[in-house]
DNA sequence: GTCTATATGCTGATAGAC
DNA sequence: GTCTATCAGCATATAGAC
C-alpha cells in the first residue's frame, strides 16, 4: 500500500500541475494549490522544500512520456509507420498529460530556466537522433527531401497545440471539452499533412485511431 | 515631430514587450522594464496607470497584424494563393513581431484573462470567416475534404512556433539567431505540407520567398 | 504528520521635491 | 515632465503547538 507520505505528495503534485497549467508558475500562489488540494498551506511545505521545488517535480513528470514518444523512430524501419506512431503518441500526450504539457510549454517558452540540465540533454539527444533518422530516410529516397528540422518543429507544434492552446481550440470549435473523436480527427489531419507532404508512400496501415495498438 | 509623450510611451511599450515576452506577465517586475528602458520606475507609472495597463497595451499591439493576416482569405479566389499568402503572413508575424507574438501566446495559453472582449470578438470573427471559406472550397471540390478547424489549428501552431518556442528552435538547430533563410525554409515546408496534404493543385506560383509581394 | 499564527522580504504603486 | 524616497500589501516560508 502507498505510504501516507507518497499519497500526499502525489495529491499535491497532481493539484499543483492543474494550478500551474492554469495560471503559470509566477502567478500561482502556494495557497491556491493548498486550497484546491484541501490542505493547509504549511502542509505543502512539509512535503516540498519550496514552491520552486514543487514546480520542478511537476515539470519533470512530463519528461519520461516525452522521451518515450520518440521510440517509434528507433523501433520502426518504415518512415510511414514511424511518423504515424510518433504523431499519435504526441497527440496522446497532449490529451492524457494536458496540464503537464502546458506547464512544460510555458517553461520552454521562457527559455527553460527551471528544467534540469539532465532532462534537457536527454530531450535534445532524442530529438537529434530522430532528426538523423529522418535524414537517413531522405537519403535512402524513402521520403521527399524536406528539411527534417522544420518537419519536426511542425509536428511538435501541431500536436502540442491541443494541450497548450486548448482554450483557443474550445473557443473556435464551440466545444465544452475535447472528445476522443476530436483528438482522432487532429491525429488524422496532422498525419495526412505530414505523410502526403513528405511523399511518404501510404502503405497498408489504417488511420491512427482505428489501427491496432 | 513626435511629442515627448509619444516618444516615451513608445519606448516603454517596446521595452515592456521584450521583458514580458522573456519572463511572462506575473514574473516581470516593473523595475525590470524601467531599468532596461533606462528610466526610473516612477516614470513608467507616469505614462501607464498600472503594470496591467502597460501589459494590455503590449497585448493589443499584436491584434491588428493578426487580423490583417487573414486578408488573403477574403482577397483570393484561389485556395492555393490564399493558403500560401496566409502562411507567409503568419510566419512573417512570428519573425517581425516575435516578442508581441509570444506575449499573445502566453495570454491565450492561460485563457486570455487580459484580452479585451472586442479584440477577442474580432479575432474569432476572422477565424470563423476563414474557416467558412475553407469549407466552401472543399464543397466546390477545390481542395480535399479535410477538417477545416484542424487545418487552421495546424497552420496557427506551426507558424506561431517560430516566435513562441524560438529558444527551443535555436537549441535544436544550433543557431544563435534565426536568419531570413530559416524563416523561408519554414514557410516552404509548412506550405508544402498544407498544399499537398489538402490536395490543392499547385499552380504557377513560386515558393513563398521568391514570389513577388 | 497536521495546522495556526507569524516573520520576512519583495514589489506595485504613490507622494512630493525638483 | 522627471525622479527619490517610501508606503502598503501580499506571498513565501517557518516556528512551534498539537
From TrEMBL, chains A, B:
Keyword DNA-binding annotated: yes
Pfam families in the record: TetR_C_3, TetR_N
Extent of the signal sequence: none
Keyword set, alphabetical order: DNA-binding
Domain HTH tetR-type: residue ranges: 6-66
Residue range(s) of DNA binding per entry: 29-48
Listed name of the protein: TetR family transcriptional regulator C-terminal domain-containing protein
Phylogenetic placement of the source organism: Bacteria, Pseudomonadati, Pseudomonadota, Gammaproteobacteria, Oceanospirillales
Amino acid at each position: 500500500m502507498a505510504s501516507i507520505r507518497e499519497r500526499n505528495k502525489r495529491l499535491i503534485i497532481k493539484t499543483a500541475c492543474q494550478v500551474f497549467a492554469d495560471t503559470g508558475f509566477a502567478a500561482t500562489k502556494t495557497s491556491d494549490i493548498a486550497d484546491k488540494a484541501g490542505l493547509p498551506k504549511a502542509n505543502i511545505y512539509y512535503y516540498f522544500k519550496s514552491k520552486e521545488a514543487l514546480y520542478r517535480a511537476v515539470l519533470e513528470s512530463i519528461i519520461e512520456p516525452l522521451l518515450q514518444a520518440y521510440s517509434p523512430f528507433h523501433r520502426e524501419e518504415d518512415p510511414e509507420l514511424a511518423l504515424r506512431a510518433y504523431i499519435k503518441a504526441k497527440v496522446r500526450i497532449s490529451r492524457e498529460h494536458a496540464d503537464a504539457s502546458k506547464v512544460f510549454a510555458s517553461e520552454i517558452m521562457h527559455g527553460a530556466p527551471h528544467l534540469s540540465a539532465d532532462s534537457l540533454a536527454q530531450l535534445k539527444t532524442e530529438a537529434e537522433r530522430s532528426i538523423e533518422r529522418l535524414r537517413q530516410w531522405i537519403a535512402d529516397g524513402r521520403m521527399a527531401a524536406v528539411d527534417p528540422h522544420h518537419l519536426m518543429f511542425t509536428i511538435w507544434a501541431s500536436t502540442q497545440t491541443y494541450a497548450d492552446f486548448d482554450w483557443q481550440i474550445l473557443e473556435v470549435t464551440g466545444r465544452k471539452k475535447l472528445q476522443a473523436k476530436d483528438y482522432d480527427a487532429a491525429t488524422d489531419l496532422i498525419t495526412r499533412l505530414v505523410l502526403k507532404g513528405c511523399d511518404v508512400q501510404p502503405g497498408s496501415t489504417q488511420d491512427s485511431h482505428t489501427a491496432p495498438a
